[in-house]
Every structure is written in C-alpha cells, then in structure tokens.
Amino acid sequence: MGDLISDSVTSDLFYIPKSEFEFVLDSKLSKIQKAEIIASMCRVNTLYMIANAGSGHIGSSFSSMEIMTWINLFEVEYINPENILENENIFFSSKGHDSPALYNTLIAKGILDFDYIHKLRKIDGLPGHPDINTPYIYTNTGSLGMGVSKAKGMIFANRLRKIEKFVYVLTGDGELQEGQFWESLLSATNNKMYELIVIIDHNKLQSDTFVDNVSSLGDLKLKLISFGFEVFEIDGNEISELANTIKKSKLVLDKPKAIIANTIKGKGVKFMEHSSIDSDTEYYKFHSGAPSNENYLLASEELINYTKHKFQTNLNLELKIEKIESRINISPLNLTKLIPAYSDVLLEVSEQRKDIVVLDADLLIDTGLLKFKDKFTSRFIECGIAEQDMVSQAGGLALSGFLPIVHSFACFLSSRPQEQIYNNSTEKTKIIYVGSLAGILPAGPGHSHQSVRDISIMASIPNLIIIEPSCIEDLNLLFKWVINENNSSCYFRIESIPFENKIKIPSNLELKLGNGISIYNPEKERKNLIIAYGPLFLNIALKVAERLYEETNIPIEVINHPWLNNVDNDWLKKCSYNIDNIFIIDNNYKNGSLGQLFEAKLSECQIDKVKLFHKYVDSIPKSGTAEEVLNFHKLDENSIFFYIKDKIN
Amino acid sequence: MGDLISDSVTSDLFYIPKSEFEFVLDSKLSKIQKAEIIASMCRVNTLYMIANAGSGHIGSSFSSMEIMTWINLFEVEYINPENILENENIFFSSKGHDSPALYNTLIAKGILDFDYIHKLRKIDGLPGHPDINTPYIYTNTGSLGMGVSKAKGMIFANRLRKIEKFVYVLTGDGELQEGQFWESLLSATNNKMYELIVIIDHNKLQSDTFVDNVSSLGDLKLKLISFGFEVFEIDGNEISELANTIKKSKLVLDKPKAIIANTIKGKGVKFMEHSSIDSDTEYYKFHSGAPSNENYLLASEELINYTKHKFQTNLNLELKIEKIESRINISPLNLTKLIPAYSDVLLEVSEQRKDIVVLDADLLIDTGLLKFKDKFTSRFIECGIAEQDMVSQAGGLALSGFLPIVHSFACFLSSRPQEQIYNNSTEKTKIIYVGSLAGILPAGPGHSHQSVRDISIMASIPNLIIIEPSCIEDLNLLFKWVINENNSSCYFRIESIPFENKIKIPSNLELKLGNGISIYNPEKERKNLIIAYGPLFLNIALKVAERLYEETNIPIEVINHPWLNNVDNDWLKKCSYNIDNIFIIDNNYKNGSLGQLFEAKLSECQIDKVKLFHKYVDSIPKSGTAEEVLNFHKLDENSIFFYIKDKIN
Predict the structure, then answer these.
(1) ipTM of the complex, rounded to two decimals
(2) CB A484 within 8 Å of CB A432
(3) What is the rounded CA–CA span in Å between residue A600 and residue A605?
(4) Of A464, A392, A458, A397, which is closest to residue A424 (Cα–Cα)?
(5) Residue B481 phi/psi, 5° resolution?
(6) Residue B481 burial by CB count (10 A; 0-12/13-18/19+): exposed, middle or buried?
(7) Quick one: pLDDT band at residue A325, thresholds 50, 70, 90?
(8) Three-state helix/strand/coil letters over A293-357
(9) In chain B, what percentage of residues exceed pLDDT 70?
(10) Mutate to test the interface with B, among A460, A563, A614 (most CBs of B within 10 A)
(11) How confident is the model over B529-555, as pLDDT tens digits?
C-alpha cells in the first residue's frame, strides 16, 4: 500500500559483504543461531538497500525479518529458479512491500546474486514489489489480499500431480482488512488444505498508523478459528518459537493453519520500533520511504553494533563492513507537489460544502487527507484497506444526499472496486473518486502500483468524467469545477511525484468539458500540436516543443487536455484546422487511452488531413528510477523529442 | 447470480386482486396474523409475476417472503418515494434476486401501484433486480455482497444528520461467500453500528445447489460473533419469531446485529421446498427461470388453496382470484444455444489437454459445466460466489503449469476480480476467462447482469485477447484455437440467449487474429460493410443486409469480427479498400468498444475515405423483454435497417 516519496540518504552507506553470510552458514552454529545472526545481518543490508534505493518499506521488512530468514533458510528448498515445480515447499509474501527483507534473505542464502543488494528499485534489478522475473519469486504481489488464493491454486496443482508440498504465505495484518483474504479462507477449510500455512506478520501497524485505529481486526484468533483454521499465536521475532510452531503445525493434517506472529514494526532499531511510539494520535514514520540522513546513520550504527556483538559472542569474530558513497542524485530544489495542493483545495471546498464526506483506505498520509481529518473529523471516514467496502459506503452516503470523495492510489481505486463503482454509477448519484500515485512514475514500487490502466477501465463508467490536473493552478480550477459546477461523478487522477513545473494556466480560463487548453504556442501559423495531460508528460511536451522551436524553428502548439474520457467534437474540429500532425502522449496503455479516443474522434468527425501520432506505455511498466524507466519505455524527453522531430521532417 | 433462460408458462395465470390485500390490512387481525396471510397471498402473486415475466427467482422469493412481508408492513414507514431521508427506517435486499417478493410486499402494502404485478421484467415496469427508479427502492442491487457497505454509508449519513434510523439489510447465504461481505463487517463493529440489522435468508441453497456443497460457510454463527456482531438465530418463516427477535435486537445498543433466519427455499410449495430434495447430487430446480406449465399449475393451486383456507379460518371469507390468459409469446422452435455447445467443446478439448482445470463461481448450470464436472471431477474446482478468490486461484494454478479456465457471468467476471485478472496478466501465464450471459440480452435481469462494459474493461489487460463467437461452428473453431494455437490469455465472451441462427462460417476458415470473416457478400463491387460479432447483432446484420439488398438493390458485405480488442492493420486496409461506409454494431457501451477501436484504427492507418458509423448501447441498459429493450436502445432490426438505409442514401 503506502509508498511515500521522500528525500534520500546522501551520506556514506554501509553493508555487510557476502563473505560474512557464507561464514555464518558454514559455521557450526545451530540452525536457530544461524538464523538469528543472519536476520540481524539482513537488517543491516535491508536498511542499506532502502537507503540506496531512495524508497522502500523499512517497518514491515524489519518486523518480518525473522520469519523470512527462518523460512527461506530452512523450510524451503530452492533448486530451479525458473520452475516452481522442482522446488521443495513454496514460500511467498502476500503483502509484498516487505520485499527488501525477502530479497535479503534470498541473497543471504546465496541463491540470489549478491550484487542485487545495490539494485533495489533499479531497472533490471529488484522491483519494489515482488515479480516473477526475479529468480525464485513465485508470484507477483503488491496488490493486497491475493496470497491465500494463489497458494490454494498452487496446492490444487500439487494435489493434481500427487505431490505434497507445504505452501507458506506471509501476510500483513492491515492486509486482512481486504475482503479477498476472508473470501479465500472458506475453500481452504472445505478442502482440508493442511498444506497451507498462513503466517500473519502481526506488527499492529499498517500504512498510516495502528491497525486498531484504522480498522480494528477485533478478535483475530477467534475469527480465524471460526473460519476453520488451526491457529497458533507466537512472538514472531523469536526464531525458536517460530520454528517449533511450524513443526507443530505440520502435524495437523485436516485443516489449514494460521500462525499469528506478533512482531514489532521496525524491529531492531529502537526509534523505529512501533512500541516506542508515544500515543495513538501519532503516525508511524517508517512504513515507507527512505530514512533521513540522520536516521539512516543512527539506525545503521545500532544494527551494525548489535550484529558485531552477535558475531563476537557466537563466532568470536570481527564483523566486516563495507562502506560506499551514496550515489543518489540530489533532487533539484523547488519541486512542485500536487498532493499538498490537493490537501489545501479539499479543505477550502469543504469549508463551504458541508455535504462533503471524505473516505480513505489507509492512505491518508499519501493521499493528503491529514488536514481534512483534523479539521472535519466527523466528516472523515477511515475505511481501512477495504476499497470495495469504501466505494459502496460512498454509494450509501450519496443516496442519502451527501457528496462523498473517495481516496486511494489510482491502481487500487480503479480496479479493486470496479463493480462497486459501476453499481454506484447506475444509481446516478454524484461521487468523486480521487486516485493518486497515478501514471508510470514513481516507478520504484513496480507495476502493481504504477497505474497505467486506470483511464482505460474508468472511461466506460456511465455518468463519470475523468480529469487529471497538470499543475497546482490546474488542480485548483478543476477540482472546484468538479465539486461546484459539474453534476456527474468524477474520477480525479493525480500524479504524486514531485516535478519541476513549467506549465502556466491562463488566469482567465473558462473550463469546458472536452476542450483542451493551449499552454504554449510560439507562432500562430503552426502545423503541429502536442496534446498531453498531467505534470510528467505535459512538462516534457513543453520542453520538447521549446527545444524544437529553438533548434529547428518549427512551431508546435502544446495543449493541456485534462479531460481523459471526453473530447469535444467542435473543439477538435477547430483546434485541428490547418494542422498536419497531432502528437499525443499518454500516461497509460494504448487500449482505452486518451490518444485512442482522439484517434476515434478524428474518424468520427471525419477530420482526414491530420496525422495522429501516439506515444503511450507500450508494455507492463518496468520498476526502476524515473530516468531508467522513462528511457526504457521511450517516454523520456529525448526519445519524445527525436520521435516528434523525425515525424515532422 | 444465476438467471436461467427457460421456457414460459402458456396456461392461464392466476393472481389475487388488490381488494383482498386491502381487506386483510383493514381487518382487525393482529399484525402477526395479517403478515402471515399477506405473505401467503404474496406467494400466489409472486408465482404469477414470475410466470408472467417468463423468468425470475422463485426459490429465494419464497424463502424470504415472511421476512419481506413483516419488515415492509410493520418495521419501516414509506412516506416519500423520491427521498429516502423522509422515510422511517430503511429496508433493502442485498441479494436482489428476491425482488419479486420485495415488489409484491410493497404492492401488498399499497405503496407500489398494483398494476406492477403484470410488469415484472418489462420495460418501465419492475426490473429483474431492484433499481432506484422504482419507487421506494433505495439502492441498486443484483451484484452480490454490497448491501452492508451501502447500509453503513446510509447510517453514517443519518448520524451526520443526527437522525436515528434502523437499516435492515436482507442478504442471501450464498452471498456470504463474497469477500466484500466480511470486509464490510469490521467497520460496522468498530463504529458500534447498532442501527444495522442484517438478516440472512439462510435457505441453505444458492444458485446451483446446497451452500454446503458449493462452499460451506462452516460455523456461520461463530463467524459473525467473531466479527463482533450480536447474533440471533431463528426460523425465518415464522413471523412471530422474527418480530420478537427484531424487537429484542433493537435493545442491543453497542453492536451491529445479525439475524440468521433459517428458511426453506421454495417455501410454500411442497415440491419446490428444498427440504424435499432427495440427495446432494441433485441440483435445485427453482432458483431461477420460469416454472414449467405443469409446475406452475400445481404450485399455484397449492398456494391458492392454502391462502383460501387462511382466509376462511381467519376472516371467514371466500378469497377472490383473478384469472388471465398468458400473454407470453411462444418462442420459435429450433433456436440455437451457445452454452450447450460450449459444454461439448470444453469436454472435447479437455479429453486431450490434461492440463486443463475448470473453475466455477456457483454458476455451473448457467455456464454449462455440468458435463465437465461429471467427467473430470478432480479437475473441477467449485469456488462459490467468490470471483476474486477464483481468479487468483487460477493464477496459482497457471504458475504451477496448468491451464485454468475460469467461468462466471460476463458482468461479474470482468469487473469483480479486475485487479486479480490484471495481476495474473503481469505474470504472463495463460488463463482463459469465459464470461457468459454477455451483452444487452437477456434484458430481464436488469443492468447488474447486462454485460455491456466487459469489452471496455478487459481490452487493456496486457497479454489478453478478447473473443466472441457468433454461432456453434464459430465457437468450436475459436475455442479450439484459443486453447491449442494461441499463447496469450483470453477473455472468451459468450451470449447466453437462444437465437435463430442464419450465420454460416466458411468450412475452410483459417483464423487470423484481428482479421474479420466475410459471411455475406451478394456482389463483389460493394461499397458498404457491416461489421458485428456475436449471435444477436451478427444475425441482425445479416437480416438487415439481405433486406437492403432485396429492397434497394444495394449490396452490403457482412463481416464477423470475433476479435474484440484486436484489429489487424493490413486486413483493415484490404477490407476497406473501395469502401464508402463501414457500419459497426457493438453489444457494449461506446467507450472502449470494438467500434471505437475501428475508428482509432482508421486514423492510425490513415484510411481517409471511409466513413464509419457506430451503433452501440448508448445508456445504462433497460430491463424488459428483448424486443422492448432493443427497441428502446434503437438496436432492433428495424432501427438498424433504417439507420443504415438513411446513411447510405
């Protein structure tokens, strides 16, 4: 879930080299002792990995470290990286954002190349959430709640082949708010799936804050028992307890098993441990995002010292530490961020409109709702990670005369509650869906979070318009229009990445549905248009147009088209008059995109003489840095510049 | 869920007139006595309504009749049909397919016009599933599992207004397999929603057969208790017990309440009562669809005699019965049905392909899986009404080397597990999704079941092609190609309505992705094309083309284009050579449809001289008879004939 965009560590970075892992594994220590030391070593390298990547999830990587280490070292056997069938027992993480821990334990075991520790969230390295293109990763996770279902599919497959394998699925606790988790339990019980061992990393915190404050799970043990599971409860940071419980659980042969592993979020670094948080009003700071410089150094020192001590007492050895310079580029100053601007405009419209009710699915920090929640507490509904429930609740509110504004990341909000959104639309009420983290960037989290399909699947919802703002002025104008002027429902798409803004919106702008807005036009007699939307590609469009005018003297008009499922025919006819080429840049796949709508509209309006060229996300987006990923998909400034230059000449 | 298409009653039909209901309500009987008599009267009229409509859900209308009657008569107050806010307490059915019972109790109370009893599943009458355009229907249902979430939204709204209202939500028991139900319970408990009273019509059967055989709910009471509900268990066909329990439940002020109402499916007619079913191998016959002539007469007699007796003993009065002739049109003989053909071809390919595993979501009768289940029992996985779980299980099976074929109605399969389908697609495995009941017909069930948006939302799934067959030969060819020739995943879209087939597929046909197939071309020198897919509109296209050729001598070629998200550029260039007009008929909304893709392709290929005209479903589809609804949306043969004739001239 949450995947904050924060500043990066610029100091030196420290990690434990490969030799030390090999030494521990080859030593004469017991399995339990080995796992305990390896877990503490993996924490050092996990912190390094995240600091080096500039983002990632520390809190739940640390809470689950002992579980990951024990299972990956001693419960499963990895034989063939390409073929799940040949490996003995299966383990994967359903929550997925604990991938830094997962990767480090696989690296510690020596089956993932050690060099990967430098390549988290880098292209052709390790994606932000697990993906099967990485050796020994069995399934793609990052969308919550699917793990047990997938495991059941694997177990059915094993049974059909008459192979006995245990499948260990690690889940979060916040994740259990997803309906699919409970949906998936029934048939596990009915099919007596004793091969299934669900381990719940019960670290008590989810993306924003304590699970109990977001949407309490109540009596979790009783719930699992009532669903027919054999339930164990342990200290999940105690490896011996875990190992014994897994052993015991395997003896139960007529039921699926659940182990509630009580863990500490941020375990291993005192100031990151959730148990050190003062009160329930505070938000947990180490769920996602890189640590600050200062926090990195403090945490790294604590983890290294602890591991050194372990090495000394268990192995009588000095621990080697490698140091490297941070290679992180310092972000330019004065970057524009849309989420804080959204916070402000939401607050502003909500002062006047007392019918506004805001709903959130455990992303109130990422989606910018803190101010609203603090000011209009009674009009704020925290739904937990329960998007379907949230959207249908919004339906009930709208039927009762309120104006619900529903929030999540675009990737989740557009797809998990698709049927619920459609159902609401058939009631013809007005509901605003705000999907942030939209588009191909940030590319660190990987394709589960890179929302490049939301336009396609929201475009056909009746009575709903899709809008994406490109800069703060645009956001203010459009959001106020959506709330106060427009009668239909709206999917308001927001890119969350900070950006250098060059876009200026005319101050006297009058919004008209499906009418683009000219934001750059060096000469009246232009023959080419670039149409784009949103900060990323509209800014690239501007730079490309300016550069082309400078270098070739060819004038290109740049048009902001914030309407993603509406193109006005009259406007299109007017704006394409005397035009040779239209270039559209889409932050979405081709099918169902704005560019495809423009293509269709040109046919519909029988505008024959204009050629349309369409740049879009051409395949499942890569995980990596912004630069790497735009470059890979040929959507960076240079690629677009040469593409357009080539087509014009 | 299930909505079988069956033959209709042609005998005389019987119902109890309005006067009798008024008489009972005005009598001096106790509330309980009144409700008991009204319930038995409503059963007579519910049977009439369904027989007259030609389809509908008898089983769960009868099981829930006492609950519906009591609540609608005495627990809620209906004051303003337009404004939920003015009415006292709120009641709605989450399962929705029990709408005939719901409607009849509202009619019995005198607040819905009595004439509506003749208008079930007729245009501007009563839709197959509840819709807010009907007076006093508060929310659109028909998609399962959303009820509690919607109720919570209403309760939040009431709390914000400082109004106290109870919200009664009637659910099915099969419905509880949907994850959203469990997802929705957490916050009800955390918010101490004492206003929420969930009544579970626990009739033990779902669409296909016993809940326990499909996907057992296990210890339902313990489950609900573990989720923090105050739970009551009653005989749900005993009104006094129900009334007392509701009264008692209202005294609990710190918890939401659930009443497990043990009922009998088909209650009131001995041979329809589930308790009369022999063994667990049998399927329940009265979930959906009209009864046979013989069954209608038998059932009607039993219900009327019982009610007559009640009238006699309680009111000392002779019950009046009205008789009318059935106005049902007899369907022509020799109709073609694709579902049985699908059953056969599935069996055929599964003989050879031992890697095929079939998954179902409680629609094995409707989706044609009985034969497969009987023959390949170990390769059949019944998932229950749990589409998300089903799709992710398919993901796990595919990762383990099997070829999963996943089934549900198109409306549900394309939308409820959208994120799960996308997640699977990012793993690049091969999975076949078979969505039946696709398109605007049958129009009886209403828009929750009329799948006219599935193309739009499946079109952008990477590595997935959408295919729709038009006739049995087409289905066989395409399905075998999908299984044996094609490497990508596929969404196989099937229309379930029986149809008169005129389509002939060339016997030497070689399938090429994105290449249409000419099925009618009276003259080589034609200037016009009609492109369509699927039995409904391709047969209409044929009739229109033949009629135009006969009447005007203008030749039109008709092309079957079963590829719904692929159009091959070379083929398009070739087939549109020398063409003036292309007419596309889409069984889908415009945005994201095949027609829009053709429009875009014409631009992309810079085919300038061809005009494209697009017929599609232009608004949320109406519920009604096929004729009424096609006519309303101007998609009937005549409308299309004159549309094309007009454009050509």
Answers:
(1) 0.97
(2) no
(3) 9
(4) A392
(5) -65, -45
(6) middle
(7) confident
(8) HHHHHHHHHHHHHHHHHHHHHHHCCCCCCEEECCCCCCCCCCCECHHHHHHHHHHHHHHHCCCEE
(9) 97
(10) A460
(11) 999 999 999 999 999 999 999 999 999
Contact call for residues A587 and A438 (beta carbons, < 8 A): yes
Report how far residue A209's alpha carbon sits from residue A211's, in angstroms, rounded to the nearest whole number.
Answer: 6
Q: Say if CB A556 and CB A529 are below 8 A apart.
A: yes
Instruction: Kindly determine whether residue A418 and residue B608, on different chains, have CB atoms separated by under 8 Å.
Output: no
Partner A, chain B 390-419, Cβ-Cβ below 8 Å: 390-402, 404, 412, 415-416, 418-419
Q: How far apart are CA B474 and CA B476, in angstroms?
A: 5
Q: Does residue B4 carry a pLDDT above 80?
A: no
Provide the edge-to-edge strand list for the sheet that holds B611-615. B517-520, B556-560, B528-532, B581-585, B611-615
Count of Cβ atoms closer than 10 Å to residue A59 Cβ: 27
pLDDT band at residue A9, thresholds of 50, 70 and 90? confident
Report yes or no: B600 at the A interface, CB cutoff 8 Å: yes
How many A/B residue pairs have CB atoms within 8 Å?
A: 353
Q: What are phi and psi of B500, to 5 degrees?
A: -80, 120
* Contact predicate A493/A455, CB 8 Å: yes
Q: Which residue has the tokens 């293509």?
A: A599
Cβ B357–A160 below 8 Å, yes or no?
A: yes
- The alpha carbon of residue A619 and the mean position of all alpha carbons in its chain are separated, in whole angstroms, by 18
Q: What percentage of chain A exceeds 90 in pLDDT?
A: 89
pTM for the structure as a whole: 0.97
Q: How far is B630 from chain A (nearest CA, A)?
A: 19
Average pLDDT, chain A: 95
What is the C-alpha separation between A167 and B370, in angstroms, rounded? 31
Residue A181 touches chain B, beta carbons under 8 Å: yes
Helices (H), A353-446: 370-375, 387-399, 410-415, 418-426
Amino acid at A443: A
Spatial strand order in the sheet of B196-202: B90-93, B167-171, B196-202, B257-262, B230-235
